[in-house]
Fold these 2 entries.
Entry 1:
Amino acid sequence: MTKNDIAKKLALKYNLPVEKTRAVLNDFIEIIGDELSKKNKVQLPGFGTFEAKEINERICRNPRTKEKIVVPSHFAPKFKAGKNLKEKVNE
């Protein structure tokens, strides 16, 4: 399922234009991204929690040249599913 498919389902469910639901969905995703860029947690009770997790600096090897390289510390998005979502998946 794609973002466009979700927008279409929401449009049908709430009898709204697809363009409006697509815009709302895009804004929702942008808000989550903005909050994560500020290192804030986004909690959606029953669905899950999004957060920016810090990945420590580490030394790796370039598989092509076998040269050691330093991967600097950085943040990566993390999602933890909520109880209701976990139950829904296991129905």
Entry 2:
Amino acid sequence: MSNRYSDLWKNQRWKKLRQNLFRLQKRVYKAVRDGDLKKARSLQKLILKSRSAQLLAVRQVSQLNKGKKTAGVDGMSSLNYRQRMELVDTLNDHASDWKHSRLREIPIPKKNGKVRMLKIPTIADRAWQCLAKFALEPAHEATFSADSYGFRTGRCAQDVQKRLQLHLKSDANGINKRIIELDIKKCFDRISHTAIMDRLIAPVSLKTGIFRCLKAGVDLEFPEQGTPQGGVVSPLLANIALDGIENIHTSLRYADDMVFILKPKDNPKKILDKVKNFLAERGMEISEEKTKLTKTTDGFNFLGWNFRVQKNGKFRSIPSEENHRNIRKKIKAVVNNSNYGAEVKAKKLAPIVRGWRNYHSSCDMSSSRDSLWFMNKTANRKFRKEKKVNRYKANELCKKGFPKVGYKQNQHVNVKGTKSPYDGDLVYWSNRNSRLYSDATSTALKKQNQSCGFCGLRFLEDEYVHLHHIDGNHDNWKTKNLLAVHQSCHQQIHWSNPKG
């Protein structure tokens, strides 16, 4: 019986299902952009009823998402193949009348010593929220500001980094500008439910489901406010509530993190007063102690980077001190772990270091601090203390553990204006996607014409690009041995060939 459900799940035509869903989402985007909200809502109903969307929603939360093993109040942290198919049937029967379970609360310590509450829905509720997001996201992507980047498909933090460079470079008179670093107090906990519901582009049944989702995670002290952190749809709802704040003054927003860019004659008090009024309408307020006005020449931190306009007028960005402290902590935790040998440590270090270097690849990484020179030397010294690890072997392991990633300050290419992957411009988005990766992944993508080497679909979505080693040897990084594939396709390859 279990094999029957396993085969049924694995043999789904995932490529065709994704094409079916994307076709509907593209039509929703176009309808909203053209001002035909009635047509958009009808299409959103079709997405909720779509078997393709339902299967993809269950796959996303049970197989692909990073937090897929996190249990809700029902204690279920994973689904077998039979349970996945049963959940698809449940979505099919109740997508238009979904009732949310309570949320499991997990306290997360904050840097300032306080605690924020992560509220985790059940897997079934996460699947419904994912289905709802499939319907809601293309509608709101057609209305969102070009200066909003966080938790949006096709956009990333590096877009903000590049936009700041364009605003603060020497020929934009960046040396004389100032920055308001805006901090919204308990943004996700205080967003007004009314503010979200009034702005939601959705049919009545979907609105009702979202309202129940919001009410499932309420703080009894603030029953009309908050969107639960931990929900699949929560970041989108926060973007919906905050959309429009970018129009107050020249600014860049990444979710609830935001900077306003002031010219010499701009009045910071007037700008902040407008921001306060905007937030008050949505149940929020700024944090006076964390919101500050900074000269660009003094430098400021944003999204893990330190930005500064130097005395010669040139713009410079490097990893922030806190960001650097965090990577040092992660590297030390691996290098000092006595449970692993040197080879295992090198394997565990590689994705940590590569990920960090990829994130900062548009920074100036020339300093010994940012090149991780000291961390590399320390790891090398500790590796040599182990049996059977000589100087040559330690050097080889450090090359594996600290993989090189090319960097060039301000090299990132920005997303164009208000463009969205739902606009159907396949050539633009597939070419852009290849630029977001470097080295071996970028080479494989170019070789494959930005298409998945397994299913043949172009890489357009937020699903990660994985590198598959064709011969199964993860130490063989020759170009011929590497295939760029979707995360889900990579899983499918290994299902059909467990040894590969």
